[in-house]
Amino acid sequence: MKILLLCLNAFEMMEVSPFIDVFGWARNDFGYDIKVITCGYKKKCNKYFWCIYRS
Which residues are 54's β-sheet partners? Predict the structure, then answer.
């Protein structure tokens, strides 16, 4: 299963990390075939403290 996670401009890792954690637990601990793909409206988007995130 592929999951597309949309990261909008100026997102914070604390907003995204619960989703990535839960999908990672499902894959590692319970053996589900899950792949998380991150995307945004632009190739690079600003995350917290004006760091650049490249998806």
Answer: 44
